[in-house]
């Protein structure tokens, strides 16, 4: 993973490089049901998958949107299989295990530690008053990525991905179908509203 292409959002002068914030509805507009305690840890599971993926694609995840979405879905069992988590460590470890279980994602202990470091920075936020800010940006970036992945496949981009990441060492990526991606987008919108109105670190 090439760290030079990943934006360090903890630096003040990088604010112009933040992802575009997605317009967020109030949580009460999404549902009248109060969030269960597991929602907080389910969010952690999704964010762990996201930060790993952005590193895995060297910060170029939008250039390979369909593959990047498939990577996030592979690593986040909450997103893909509605798996609920009861605590922070279980949510993170499950994403880690999915990295090692995958037939096409190559990783090692250093990559896993980097994922944890990135996750910690996002959950911590730039300061105590803006502790949700990085989560909102990460979810917004994910929302835009998933929308981008619904666009028609560019054969050139696909072949470039295979040459740059696959290198014929492991099977081709199993892309997520569009109907599932649309469901993932709705779930991300839920987590955006949850984070804005309900999330407490």
Commentary on this structure:
InterPro entries: ZNHIT2. The protein is built from nine helices and no strands. The chain has 201 residues and is mainly alpha-helical. The protein has one domain (37-197). The longest helix is centred in the last third of the chain and has 20 residues, at 178-197. The two termini are 28 Å apart. Mean pLDDT is 86; it is low at 2-14 and 166-170.
Which helices and strands occur, and which strands form pairs?
Elements lengths: L26 H4 L7 H19 L8 H11 L1 H5 L6 H14 L7 H16 L8 H17 L5 H12 L11 H20 L4
Instruction: Return the structural class.
Output: mainly alpha
Total helix count? 9
Mean pLDDT: 86
Low-confidence segments, given as residue ranges, are 2-14, 166-170
How is the biggest beta sheet arranged?
A: none
Q: Distance between the terminal alpha carbons, to the nearest Å?
A: 28 Å
Beta content comes to: under 5%
Number of β-strand runs: 0
Helix content: 55-70%
Net shape: globular
Number of domains: 1
What is the helix/strand order?
A: HHHHHHHHH
Q: Gyration radius, to the nearest Å?
A: 16 Å
Q: What are its keywords?
A:
201 residues, mainly alpha, globular, ZNHIT2
Outline of the structure:
InterPro entries: ZNHIT2. This protein has 201 residues and is an all-alpha fold.
